[in-house]
Amino acid sequence: MNNIKKCPKCGFMLTSDYGTKPYCLKCGYTEGIFLHDMSKYNIKESDLELFFKDKAVKYLYNKNNFLIFILGPLFYSYSGFFWIGMFLTFFSFRVGFLVYYNLGFIIFLIYFLSTRIIYMTFSNTIILWLVNLKIKLLKKYYKDYRNKIKKYKPTSILYVILAFLMALSLSIIFYL
Q1: Which of 51, 57, 59, 75 lies at 20 to 30 Å from 66 by C-alpha?
Q2: Residues 138, 59 within the same domain
Q3: Among 2-6, 124-128, 150-154, 169-173, where is mean pLDDT lowest?
Q4: Mean pLDDT of all residues in 58-72
Q5: Coil, strand or helix at 49
Q6: 135 with 149: CB under 8 angstroms?
Q7: Distance CA 108, CA 65 (A)
Q8: CB-count exposure of residue 42 (10 Å: 0-12, 13-18, 19+)
Q9: What is the dihedral of CA 65, 78, 72, 66, to 10 degrees?
Q10: What average pLDDT does the segment 27-55 reach?
Q11: Within this chain, do residues 52 and 38 fall inside the same structural domain, yes or no?
């Protein structure tokens, strides 16, 4: 499962779509093709690649739909935006309780599936916008902002569990 190949030129992850040879999205290297002068392809890592590390392709090309479907609003907490994820989870619980107890189980399933589809459609775009905003703020206030980005750990399952528990407890408190 963990047999991700790295590009020999730039170190970025190689991808392969629909039976093609593995290629690099960053510098265009294709496996099995020899380039004579590779020194002119010395490409600096972008800020988004530093922020997301090895998960950059998943965010940039929306290849994490299953994870977004499973986590829903908690995906924001998983991506490093704890308070947004907790607020959206709390809001989702509240609306879910209201829909379930007032309109029934079938309408609740329709609500659940439709909100998950909306999250799958827009979450990566919103997270990329938030990350770009965070990087702009770091550029504004720190001269050595790239080191701050390198130290940042955007994904953590602990944030997901904590946001879920806090949102659930707040929902229960406000429900009673």
Answers
A1: 51
A2: yes
A3: 2-6
A4: 83
A5: helix
A6: yes
A7: 21
A8: exposed
A9: 20
A10: 63
A11: no
- How far is Cα 16 from Cα 28, in angstroms, rounded to an integer? 12
**Residue 2 has what pLDDT?**
46
Name the token pair of 25: 């999205």
Same domain? 83 vs 31: no
Tell me which residue range forms the domain holding 171: 45-175
Are residue 82 and residue 168 in the same domain, yes or no?
A: yes
Instruction: Give the pLDDT confidence of 135-149 residue by residue, as tens digits.
Output: 888 888 888 888 888
Distance CA 58, CA 15 (A): 11
Q: Which two tokens stand for residue 119?
A: 């999250």
CA angle 165, 159, 134 (to 5 degrees): 130
Cα(153)–Cα(53) distance, integer angstroms: 9
What tokens does 46 get? Answer: 């972008």
3-state secondary structure of 24: strand
Single-letter amino acid, residue 90: F
Distance separating alpha carbons of residues 151 and 48, to the nearest angstrom: 13
Closest CA to 139 of 45, 54, 47, 55: 47
- Could you tell me the end-to-end alpha-carbon distance of the chain, in angstroms, rounded to an integer? 45
Mark whether 19 and 52 lie in a shared domain.
no
